[in-house]
Amino acid sequence: MTNTAQIGLIGLGTMGAMLALNIAEKGFPIAVWNRTTAVTHGFKAEAGALAPMITATESLAELVAAITPPRAIVLMVPAGQAVDDMIADLTPLLSAQDLIIDAGNALFHDTNRRAAAAAKGGPRFLGIGVSGGEEGARHGPAIMGGGDKADWDRVAPVLNAIAAQYKGEPCAEYMGPAGAGHFVKAVHNGIEYADMQMIAEVYGVMRDGLGMQAAEIATVLRGWNAGVLQSYLIEISAEVAAATDSHSGKPMLDMILDRAGQKGTGRWTVIEAQHLAATIPAIEAAVMARNLSSRLEERLAGEALFGAAPQPTTSVTLAQLEQAMIAGKILCYAQGFALISAAAKAFDWPMPLPDIARVWREGCIIRSSMLNDMATALSDDAARNLMFAPFFADHLKASHGDLRAVVAAAALAGLPVPALASGLAWFDMMRTGRSTANMIQAQRDFFGAHGFERVDGLADKHGPWAGHGL
Ligand code: 6PG
Asked: In the predicted model, is pLDDT for residue 308 greater than 90?
């Protein structure tokens, strides 16, 4: 085997296969390996005009020998133990200058651990978040990199070439050391969960509250996709709402069980937000809604016991729903960016917010025209909460009344809108100068003598109940 490949790739599942074709198409000779050899040969056999760029290998040793040193090898294997196993198998075959790139959806703590182990010797290690599903992997994903900058720079020509391009700018960026890239990818997925959930909630208001058919809902979503809400997720939601089931002839959506799956990245985001004391209630609500969706039997029992919520409503207009969705979306992105800011501070990682918004403009699942405005708003002041950026503050001033009207009408009709409602509660708390936490402080002082600060600055830190505590 001659070492002519510029890069290697392990794991020819859907995402790995698409990424390998993308790399080959951009002019980089690639060596590939899959645990099942038949899959490797089948992949090359079906690569058509790209086949000459691909070296199919039958063992890890053969794969390593096929790549020009210092080598770069992309792992596209399931997150978790499979990544550790693959690193363990590769390590004896590689030199300390070779580079392993984990392109799966890894938990960033795992990436931190693997990067720390690599720093002690052995092959180099990069963790990159890759978003865009099958289509993105094949024709241009968004890429969020973490590890040593020098290692990123070494493979940046390949990553920039295979990434989605936004007006000629590659949607690939270095986020910071170790797990920074996978952290940003997890937040991307948290936002993805919330954006999807909010769309599902307005779909629910249209379906159950306004009694609209799937095809009518598709038309509304298509209209929204031509405006401020233009995004991949609204676009595909319109498409799925318009689709017909070939078996029953009914709308496809009506035939799909309302039990949503998840691989866990949204949950990781919420857990990390709690560790960092970052507030991401819209994302938390979306994860909660996914968890609850799987409890179908309990929900059916609840419906039988408490009567069939939801009820029709006439007190919401489609225009209000669109504005509510705009406000909800801004709030959920503001929460996601604030979480990244908190992590950047806590871990001392660069994670440049304007660059993150730029990377997300194309290729990834949450791509939308609003992200371009977010990139601009964050460039003006990278430390600012997005909801305070003048452009988005104006949007929120114009739309929060409709978000309020939708959440209120939904509550009265028993239509669950947890992500929209959580976004609204966050917005209201964020604009309440005098909150109710004085009551919390008084309670804490009463039962635990924890003390409080006074509004008048006096030094007396306890209430007249002192000594009444348990
Ligand atoms: C992406 C997606 C992707 C995600 C899967 C499954 O950015 O391309 O976020 O990485 O992991 O679509 O996600 P769930 O199973 O958790 O919904």
From this structure: no
| Cα(45) to centroid(ligand 1), Å | 28
Mean pLDDT of the chain: 96
Lookup: tokens for 248: 């029953």
The residue annotated as part of the active site, out of 46, 58, 135, 185, is 185
Task: Report pLDDT for 384.
Answer: 85
pTM over 0.85: yes
Share of the chain above pLDDT 70, in %: 98
- In the predicted structure, residue 429 carries a pLDDT above the cut 90: yes
pLDDT in tens, 95-121: 999 999 999 999 999 999 999 999 999
Question: Distance of alpha carbon 253 from its chain centroid, rounded?
Answer: 24
Residue 185 a catalytic site member: yes
**Domain identity same for 394 and 311:** yes
Token digits for 211?
């009694």
Closest CA to 199 of 185, 216, 213, 220: 220
Cα 189 to middle of ligand 1, angstroms: 7
Kindly list the protein residues whose Cβ atom lies closer than 6 A to any atom of ligand 1: 105, 131-133, 188-189, 192, 261-263, 265-266, 364-365
Distance separating alpha carbons of residues 241 and 218, to the nearest angstrom: 5
Whether 158 and 218 map to the same domain: the answer is no
Identify the H or E element spanning 75: strand 72-75
Question: Do 117 and 192 share a structural domain?
Answer: no
Q: What are phi and psi of 323, to 5 degrees?
A: -65, -40
Atom of ligand 1 lying closest to residue 193 CA: 17
- Are residues 214 and 181 located together in one domain of the fold? no
Question: Residues 192, 201, 322, 362: which is the catalytic one?
Answer: 192
Given this model, what pLDDT does residue 468 score?
Answer: 60
Closest ligand 1 atom to 290 CA: 17
